[in-house]
From TrEMBL:
EC number: 1.5.5.2
Residue ranges the record marks as coiled coil: none
InterPro entries, per the entry: FAD-linked_oxidoreductase-like (IPR029041), PRODH_bac_arc (IPR008219), Proline_DH_dom (IPR002872), Proline_oxidase (IPR015659)
GO molecular function, one term: proline dehydrogenase activity
Record's catalysed reaction(s): L-proline + a quinone = (S)-1-pyrroline-5-carboxylate + a quinol + H(+)
GO process annotations (BP): L-proline catabolic process to L-glutamate
UniProt protein name: proline dehydrogenase
Residues that bind substrate: K98, R306, R307
UniProt entry keywords in alphabetical sequence: FAD, Flavoprotein, Nucleotide-binding, Oxidoreductase, Proline metabolism
Origin species: Streptomyces bungoensis
Binding site for FAD: Q181, K205, G206, A207, K219, S244, H245
């Protein structure tokens, strides 16, 4: 399987330098990341919303090693919200955030116990509290312009902290969403807890290299888990967000929604910018809510490599481009 190899390369400084230096890289990256600044991205937002699509915006960047960098990430999202306010698009454009960008990993937790969503876990302090302090003003500012924030899921070691922050934010901002990953063994239980009235939950397959002790490793196992978890969400009282490009899973999602008696505005599909654009438009034309996950920024490498790892077709596209234009 190439996925784990590519994910390993995403953490390699040598591979980062090699790929960044390739002349064709920017042309290919632009397929997935259509700009580096807020100014770059505003025309994209206007173009996609004019076509009946909705968006979730991600300011890319994951290598946060200081509190100052975490504060800069917070400020980048606040700047985005300032620009979105002038467009008056409300909930058509929300934001996705990775808590690692807000300082979640600075420093390690203590050894005391905290009753987290999945049971007793190490008490959170330091990075956890820093991430909560940095993300709260972003969530507040988003609410002020009529939209919201979804907390992206990262590797399994971060999830108890993420869910605890999610619960804390929902006390004042109940529309705050979160992401769950089908390949993790724990996720079906998480979904049952989260599928409550007022919740917003995005289900994805998962794009991090996880050990066999905590995650399914085979595609067919992940797909079956995805369907089981999606059924839980569709039959629950929350708002499911179906994060997949897989035509079979999209059809299954529509069938599960129909069986659960859901109207088209009671769930949504989410896909990445640059992947299956025609399908985005087809679903929107049928009356579905279709939200495009749109990333921008200069620190694109980790995000780009995970897109290659998720789907062999993405890697083939990149390699063909390097051969034909390199």
């Amino acid at each position: 399987m190439l996925g784990p190899v590519i994910l390993a390369a995403s953490r390699s400084d040598r591979m980062r330098r090699l790929i960044s230096a390739a002349p064709v890289t920017k042309q290919v990256v632009d397929r997935f990341i259509p700009g580096e600044t807020v100014t770059d991205i505003v025309p994209i937002v206007e173009e996609l919303t004019a076509k009946g699509l909705e968006l979730t915006m991600d300011v890319v960047g994951e290598d946060i090693t200081t509190p100052e960098q975490a504060a800069a990430a917070r400020d980048a999202y606040l700047a985005l919200i300032d620009h979105l306010a002038t467009l008056e698009l409300g909930e058509k454009v929300e934001m996705s955030v990775k808590l690692s960008m807000f300082g979640q990993a600075l420093p390690s937790p203590t050894t005391a116990l905290f009753e987290g969503p999945s049971g007793p876990t190490p008490a959170f302090q330091g990075g956890h509290e820093l991430a909560l302090a940095n993300v709260r003003p972003v969530v507040e500012a988003a609410a002020a312009i009529g939209t919201t924030v979804t907390l992206d899921a990262e590797d399994h070691t971060t999830l108890d902290s993420m869910f605890a922050i999610h619960e804390e934010l929902r006390k004042d901002f109940p529309q705050t969403g979160c992401v769950i990953q089908a390949y993790l063994f724990r996720t079906e239980s998480d979904a049952r807890r989260l599928a409550a009235a007022g919740s917003r939950v995005r289900l994805v397959k998962g794009a991090y290299k996880e050990p066999a002790e905590v995650a399914y490793q085979q595609k067919h196992e992940i797909d079956k888990a995805y369907v089981r978890i999606l059924k839980v969400l569709m039959e629950g009282e929350g708002y499911p967000m179906v994060g997949s490009h897989d035509p079979r899973l999209i059809s299954i999602a529509q069938e599960l929604a129909h069986r659960a008696g859901r109207k088209m505005d009671e769930y949504e599909f989410q896909m990445l910018y640059g992947i299956r654009g025609d399908e985005h438009l087809r679903l929107a034309a049928e009356g579905h809510r279709m939200r495009v996950y749109t990333a921008y920024g200069t620190d694109w490498y980790g995000y780009f490599m995970r897109r290659l790892a998720e789907k062999p077709a993405n890697l083939r596209f990149f390699l063909r481009s390097m051969v034909s234009k390199g």
